[in-house]
Amino acid sequence: MQPDEVWGTRWRSCANPIAHRFMETACEKQSLVCLAADLRTIDELVNLVNEVGPYIAALKTHVDIVEDFSTENWLKLVEAAAENSLLLFEDRKFADIGGISQKQMAGVYDIRSWSDIVTAHRISGPDIIDGIAAGWADVQRIGGVLLLAQMSSQGNLLTSEYTEETIATGKASPHVLGYIGNGSSPIEVSALRELVGDGQMIWTPGVNIDSNAAIMGQRYGNPHDSIIAGADVIIVGSGIYRVKDRKSAAKAYADASWNALLERER
Ligand code: 5BU
């Protein structure tokens, strides 16, 4: 199926080229899964990506939890992502002033050189987005920012007013590809979709087929419900990497998310 048939208004209304790249890959793989690859060594990460690659459409990392980081080693993961047609998303949650965020895009990890997407908080002011975009521009690349409009964790301080301010900022910037929404709550996701409209994406962590698996303040909702409520991507970590048969788990999330998209009004 062609992306415009499957994604409908989202395909036509999203201006950001990275959103289109995701939607195309999602159609090729019939999956709206972004894998949260929260493992501690690069070899483990590469193995995981090669194992579940056919069932996922993007790869999310936390580069600073890797114990054996070196630029050379990390390139193996970047290559594995490219071989599996995956956008590479560093969930850095930038939160500083614009100029420092630009510098943090460089540094030891040089996030600007390999990431297509990063997350940022709105807390410090709207200029954080320009700082991040300047980071990519420093190495002649472009990327997309996902602003944290909601979070999945219990007791977070992102009030509905904060969410509204975040969306107002995001709508004003061509660098903002969309928002993080709370995948554990379809009610919150649909409220977010109302505010966002059709022109930007919503990516939701806090998704697991087993809603009782949550630990340490994480909360989980169901993949199908999250997409029906208006999310475009489900971010799934331990629901895939922590189970015995990771391939079957990834396929189950892919099927649930893809079927929900086909079911959803376009
Ligand atoms: P899990 O294993 O599926 O619970 O992992 C969720 C991932 O999503 C993990 O990498 C978190 O850092 C990330 N996350 C989240 O869980 N909740 C949020 O609100 C945001 C990110 Br933002």
Structure commentary:
The chain has an 8-stranded parallel barrel, surrounded by 6 helices. Helix 4 packs parallel to helix 5 (71-83) and helix 6 (98-104) runs parallel beside helix 8. The chain has a single domain, classed as TIM Barrel (Alpha-Beta Barrel), CATH 3.20.20.70. The longest helix is centred in the last third of the chain and has 18 residues, at 246-263. It has 266 residues and is an alpha/beta fold. The chain has helices at 3-7, 9-13, 17-29, 42-52, 71-83, 98-104, 111-114, 127-138, 160-171, 186-196, 223-228, 238-241, 246-263; strands at residues 33-36, 58-61, 87-94, 117-120, 144-148, 176-180, 201-204, 233-236. The chain contains 13 helices and 8 strands. Strand 4 (117-120), helix 8 (127-138) and strand 5 (144-148) form a beta-alpha-beta unit. The structure holds 5-bromo-uridine-5'-monophosphate. 5-bromo-uridine-5'-monophosphate (5BU) binds at residues 36, 38, 62, 91, 119, 148, 151-153, 180, 205-206, 218, 235-239.
